[in-house]
User: What shape does this take?
Amino acid sequence: MADEAQAGGTVSDLAPRGSWGTFKNQIERVVQAPPNRIDRTWLVGMAGSAQTEVLQAFRALKLISPEGKPTTLLQALAVPEEAERKKRLAAIFREHYAAQIALDLTKATPGELNESMSQTFQIEGSTRKKAVRFFLSGLEYVGIQVAPIFKRSVGNGAPPTGEPRKRRTPRPVDDEKPDDRRPARGMTRTVKLKSGGELTLSVSIDLFELDKADMDFVLDFVNKLKGYEQEAK
Assistant: This one.
């Protein structure tokens, strides 16, 4: 329970579950310019939920104190050579995820990993999925080997749970051409006749599709209609 006390929260707080890429980027920032404290103001330009996940991951891996002060572990990790940084990060992973790595992940199944994560960190559901994804992404980065099924799960974005991805309902095939689905442009005009009654003209055509004879006929008819309407007024 010492880890729990150091993290200042529950056992589930010891399971990092944010974006691995975002976490790694912050480590690289520390390498370039080590801060006195890692807090939300240092994580400027980042969404609030992402800030929470980064801080939680740093605390869980004992890289910062509950107050955000960098620990000696983070200071040792913040070396400019990436190869050395990966080696030291691998050591952190082997200690923090000792129970999961002890499964021999080159042979373990997603179900075994899920059960181990639940037992160690007391997490389930979407929280466990996020934690497992962070863990596997970290292993891939530091070079710790896992079974191909885990690599596929992380690579295609599917949750590494051993559960089948839900199939999407295929869209029905539409044989109509896009032009056939467009509503025809049209207009309606009503003219009152001098002798009483009304004449309504409804037109639904595409002027760009008319040949010269039809175009002349339509324009002549429209002009006559407009002339009659003006005369009647």
Summary: Residues 184-232 form one domain. The beta strands are 186-192, 198-204.
